[in-house]
Each structure stands twice: as C-alpha cells, then as structure tokens.
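User: Hand in any protein.

Assistant:
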Amino acid sequence: MNTLRPRVGLLGFGHAAPPTVRRNDDPIYDWIKANDPTHGQLFTGYVERHVIGPGESIDTCMIQAARAALADARIAPDDVDILLGFTSVSEYITPNSLAAVHAALGLAKSCWAMPVQADFSNYPAALLMADALVAAGRARNVLIACGANWTQFVNYHTPQCVSAGDGAGAAVIGVTRDASRFRVVDYEVSYESSGYGNMYMQADPLDAPPTPVDPPFAASYSHPYYHISAEGMSEYQVFGVQEPPKIVARLLDRNAIASSAATIIPYQASAKLLDAWKAAMQPHQMLHTLEQFGNMVIANLAVNLAIFSTQLKTDHAVLVGMGPEPHATALLLRRGG
C-alpha cells in the first residue's frame, strides 16, 4: 500500500429532475399497451418518471445538480480543476453539452471539461477517473455531472419506452481528512464486446439510400431513438440478470466483504432485474428510485447516490452499472478506516 496516497473522498452530492411528471396512465403509452401486451414482462416497476418538457433542456438539470454538489462540498467553482461527466443525449453530436454546464457554472478556463462516454456506466467510470486524478496529484477537486433526457429518444412503439425518465446527478471528489466520506476502493467489470450492435441509438432512414454520387445525407431520417434487437433482448434477460451478481460477488470476495455488510445502489432498468439481483446478491440493503424516476439511464447512479448518501446503513456501497455492448460494472465505495 502506498502510504503517500492522500485520502480522496466524495465531498458533496447533488441531483435534479424536470418538474413534469409522467405516470402510467399517460396517453403516450396507449399504443404500446394496445399493441404489445408483452411489454410489461421485461420492463416493469415504474409508477412515475420526470420528463423534459417543451423548451426545456437536461442541461438545466445538470447545472442545478452540479451547483448543489458544489454547495454540499463547500467548493467554489474556481476550485474545480476538472469537469467529468456526460450529457445523453447532447444537443449536438459533438461537442457534448457538458461544455454548456462548464459555461453556466462559470468554471475557470483552466478547468478541463472531459466527456466520459462509457454508456451507461458514465458515472462510476468518472468516479474511478476522478479518484485516480486526485490521488496522483493531477487535480485538487473534480466535479462530475451526468444527465439523461431519454424520454425524447425512445420510440413509443417499442417495449422499452415505458421505462424512460429524465434526470441529472453530480458529485465532487477531492482530498479530505474526513474518514466518514465515502471513497473509491476497487472495481470489477465484465465487458462482452461481441454484443456490439444489439442495443444502440440511431436514426432510421426513411428514404432509399442515396446513390454513390449523392452527399451522404441525401436520405431523410427519423428522429434518433434507442433500438434493442432480438439478440439485445436476449442479452437483457440472460447477461443482464446473471452477470452483475457475478461481478459483485468477485469484487466483495476480493475485498473480504460479506454481501450482508454491503449496500447495493443498482442501475435501475426494470424491477425484473432489480428483484433478480437482490435475490442473488443478498445485500444489507438495495437502494433505488425506480418507482419515482424510472430508468434515467446514465444518471441513475448519480441521482441515487446523491439521494441516499446520508441514508446508507453500511460502510461499504457498491454501484452496479450496465451498458449496451453489453457490459456490467461494479464500483466499491468505503467509508471509515
């Protein structure tokens, strides 16, 4: 163990969601209820979702969450050295609108905004990077902000549409002497890149493909939306159910932690997955907001860690992420000692 490594901890948290609430009786779900009665077999457990309204932007929620995290950490914008995170889906394909968050917060020109596109594990990936940057002396304070507006990027004729919710979460990582602050300890990952292309977001061409002499954008396209192929649905049910408990078990075993001594904060895609994970992992507690917020995609873990940061009953917490390649991630946090 490197005794010169400073104690790096999570200094503050924040979260925000748009004010409009969409419930299960919303007319937007009428088509899927009438035409795909099987949609509720995989995508279950939602009561409310917060949704971006006309003229609103998820950037606003990210800015609110970031300001709350800075206030919680008692850190001024000028004290932030690096901004990590991601906006999904950004106003532009590139650059990511994390830049808009940087501008609105008034962060210094020397503060590097680094989008972390590790869908949908952007937040734990950013925590891991921030911990390493501060521990290495490359930064004093790192601000992380993740936001998702996927209610605008699902097709309401597809089963997964019922899960989408919008929200944003943020955290500050820096050097601390406070042993009660959670810190990053270890991680585990399972990355099945062979599934690339089974779950993805893109627009569908509406016209015949352009001829070779036409510009590449000569065809008309639909609005971008999230696709899950038949293979993707299979991965969701097999890899999605089985793999996260395996990596959590490996992570806890390696660190000599009993599952009953850990709190799980999971990626909240569906009650079906959450119930399976809880049965397999047997944690002291599993904390989520599926009924309140639905699936906020890359913001799930950021929002829920902010909400539950003062309610954890254990000194060990595991953030469990998932992504569409598919992948599963587990990030171990610890306080005390």
About this structure: The longest helix spans residues 58-73.
